Amino acid sequence: MIGLQLPDLKTSTAHIFTRPSLDYFLLKEAIIVTSNTYTIDGAVKKDYFSEEELEGLRDPEWMEWKLLRPVCFSLIKGSRLPLSFQIALALSRDNIDRLVGQNRISFRTEEIGGLYLNFRYEKKVLTAISATSLKTFSMDKSLEILWDDTVKKLLHQLEIPFEE
């Protein structure tokens, strides 16, 4: 797990809320504090969808960030900055499989609970935090190192400056 400070708020928040840069992630949770506190649980409520709609979702458990990004943006846009926000994104199972397959690490994909990218904004400071979750205990840190490096590469690709 690493925490990276993102000093360029304008560029960083544009990628988070208005550009499709992170649309391949799934939303676990969003908490946005403005005049009120808004909490969005990214869990798919299967009873809401038809069978056809459920089949069209990329993930059966978590909503795609690209579907909820406009909702979250609508909560923060305006002349005032939000007091705070927390956005918890998860890499999709397909992308976890691809990442593990492209790199030589000792984990099988079914051992991986999740790979997460969290954004926290509070007191005018924006931080990106990487996190990994395993379904079994391991002293092996290769997956954590790989994910931390992947997050840094992603930010670099998006031209989002960061400080460690």
Primary descriptors:
164 residues, alpha+beta, 5 helices, 6 strands
Written account of the structure:
The protein is of the alpha+beta class. The chain has 5 helices and 6 strands. It has a 6-stranded antiparallel β-sheet. The longest helix is centred in the C-terminal third of the chain and has 16 residues, at 142-157. The model has no long low-confidence stretch (mean pLDDT 93).
Placed side by side, the strands forming the largest sheet appear as 1-6-5-4-2-3
Low-confidence stretches: none
Number of helices: 5
Structural class: alpha+beta
Overall residue-averaged pLDDT value:
93
Query: What general form does the structure show?
Result: globular
* Biggest β-sheet description: 6 strands, antiparallel
Give the distance, in angstroms, between the N- and C-terminal Cα atoms: 12 Å
Order of helices and strands: EHEEHHEHEEH
Helix content: 25-40%
Radius of gyration: 16 Å
The number of E-state strands comes to 6
Task: Quote the beta fraction.
Answer: 25-35%
